[in-house]
Amino acid sequence: MRIAFQGEPGAYSEAAIFEHFGNHLQDNHLQTVPCESFEEVFACVARGDCERGLIPVENSLAGSIHRNYDLLLQNSLAVVGEHYLRVHHCLIGLPGVTLSEIRSVISHPQALAQCDAYIKSLGGVKAEAAYDTAGSVKIAREKNDRTLAAIASRRAAELYGMQILAESIEDNAENITRFQIIASQPVAPGSDAKTSIVFALKNEPGSLFKALSVFALRDIDLTKIESRPLAGKPWEYFFYIDFAGSIQEEVVVRALSHLEEYATYLRVLGSYPRHRLGSSEDKQILMSNKEK
Amino acid sequence: MRIAFQGEPGAYSEAAIFEHFGNHLQDNHLQTVPCESFEEVFACVARGDCERGLIPVENSLAGSIHRNYDLLLQNSLAVVGEHYLRVHHCLIGLPGVTLSEIRSVISHPQALAQCDAYIKSLGGVKAEAAYDTAGSVKIAREKNDRTLAAIASRRAAELYGMQILAESIEDNAENITRFQIIASQPVAPGSDAKTSIVFALKNEPGSLFKALSVFALRDIDLTKIESRPLAGKPWEYFFYIDFAGSIQEEVVVRALSHLEEYATYLRVLGSYPRHRLGSSEDKQILMSNKEK
């Protein structure tokens, strides 16, 4: 199975692919395909070059990745899965280097910001921006400078033959990214499912309240709501909603039929198996990472 | 009155300040204060260096400027006004240059994207990214290259003594940015008012529906809803809501008191006079711009 992601080899998106599909597939049947942009991930799956694509949609600290919500709408692909990845940043240097030698650190600005307190605690270490976390490890390798470290995933360190000087250096432990998995065709969602939809409403008082009533009146639990402007119609919005349940359940079919009475546009992006990031599961993942 | 904004002189934020305050104040009593970052705009007002700050919160094509929602929450300033600015991009070259001489165009990536069809229509003209729209005019002036044009506001062209080669070159005419005005103290909102609030809810089924009911049951019209993650509490959110009415109205006081029954956190950012971007008003603005 070929799975597209945005970024360099060793990116957190690639780590999410291995976590998500690692339990279901033999490693040698899993091929990750790096893409330059999110658009290219969608195009790869639409063309049939890859069976699946994996895109980040939200980070617990930074919020939604809006570009991917727009691309879900512009493309006619189905959402067939989700994955929550706990992000653990590593400080990565040349082999044989010690922490006390480090004088500057390079990474994506968001990763630098997420490790700000740690970097300050090192004392007199300068932070420099790079376009990518995994790419910053590549740069540090090429510069061959013993005083330069990068911040990226454990896998990025391994890929480029570099050394991990410190692990889990993020200031806030609750740094989790949610990914969605896209495919050209829907899948059977199973019994513990979630559904993602997008809809538009008339711009009139109470319209969102009415739209949410179709779920509240049927005890359907919303897990996410997001609004995006409708291009060409200032201050009218698309709403993206995720809820517990699948379109194979009668109560969900009725709720969506009810929603159609109010919505000027409605599309089901997909029903898919729900992923839960439990603490025991998280520990297993950490352990399996350390065993590699 | 000193008013802080983010960007270089000639930025669209500065244009919004002149549009908003121009009718109420003599030009010589209005001083715009450029700041390097949004953080600095908030700090400027908090320190008392400026009486007001003006921050973009949403664009009709690109969506919300999330950083400023976070800063509204982190600071204890009041929202005292809003302004809708219709964004008209100009193609700006050296004095005496004709359109046919232009071979490359420089601007902020978002402005380049918003004029994509126009740039393509010029044929063989290369686009280059700059950090800022007004800053790109400064660069074009300094390079002193007859084949280089910038994309920015009319005012930026005037400030740097440059020539406007084409006006309103944006592909989508409905390109509007909404700004909010911040101050250290609230103002009297008047009779045609809007109110901005932020609140958090328990993460349980139907909680957002209940929260919206306090407005729907009282026929209070929501004009905007936005969600932002709560740092350290994955998948719990702050909600930012704007609605018609002021906290001096009994029905609004009752709605907010009702909301307090459900909300784990509630803060009124401010009530302020509503700004409406009507077509006649918009024409006046365009005319007054052309007269300058």
Discrete helix count of chain A? 10
> Rough shape of chain A?
elongated
**Percent strand of chain A:** 25-35%
Overall radius of gyration of chain A: 21 Å
Oligomer: homodimer
Sheet with most strands of chain A: 6 strands, mixed
Average the pLDDT over all residues of chain A and give the rounded result: 89
Q: In CATH terms, what is the architecture of the largest domain in chain A?
A: 3-Layer(aba) Sandwich
Largest interface: A-B, 35 and 35 residues
Relevant CATH superfamily of the largest domain in chain A: Periplasmic binding protein-like II
For the termini of chain A, the CA-CA separation is: 22 Å
Which fold name corresponds to the CATH topology of the largest domain in chain A? D-Maltodextrin-Binding Protein, domain 2
Class of secondary structure makeup of chain A: alpha/beta
Low-confidence spans of chain A: 279-292
**What is the helix fraction of residues of chain A, given as a range?**
25-40%
Order of helices and strands of chain A: EHEHEEHEEEHHEHEHEEEHEEHEH
Record field, number of beta strands of chain A: 15
Q: What's the CATH class of the largest domain in chain A, please?
A: Alpha Beta
- Give the count of structural domains of chain A: 3
Could you walk me through the main structural features you see in this protein, from its secondary elements to its overall organization?
Chain A is of the alpha/beta class and 292 residues long. Chain A folds into three domains: 1-85 and 177-187 and 276-292, 3-Layer(aba) Sandwich (D-Maltodextrin-Binding Protein, domain 2); 90-174, Periplasmic binding protein-like II (D-Maltodextrin-Binding Protein, domain 2, 3-Layer(aba) Sandwich); 193-273, ACT domain (Alpha-Beta Plaits), CATH 3.30.70.260. Chain A has helices at 12-22, 38-47, 66-74, 109-114, 116-122, 133-143, 154-159, 207-216, 250-260, 279-291, and strands at 2-6, 31-35, 52-59, 63-64, 78-86, 90-93, 104-107, 126-129, 148-152, 163-167, 176-183, 193-201, 222-230, 233-244, 263-273. In chain A, the strands form three sheets. In chain A, strands 1, 2, 3, 4, 5 and 11 form a six-stranded mixed β-sheet that branches. Chain A has a five-stranded mixed β-sheet with strand order 8-7-9-6-10. In chain A, strands 13-14-12-15 form a four-stranded antiparallel β-sheet, with helices on both faces. In chain A, a hairpin with a 2-residue loop joins strand 13 (222-230) and strand 14. The longest helix of chain A has 13 residues, at 279-291. The model of chain A is unreliable at 279-292 (pLDDT under 50).
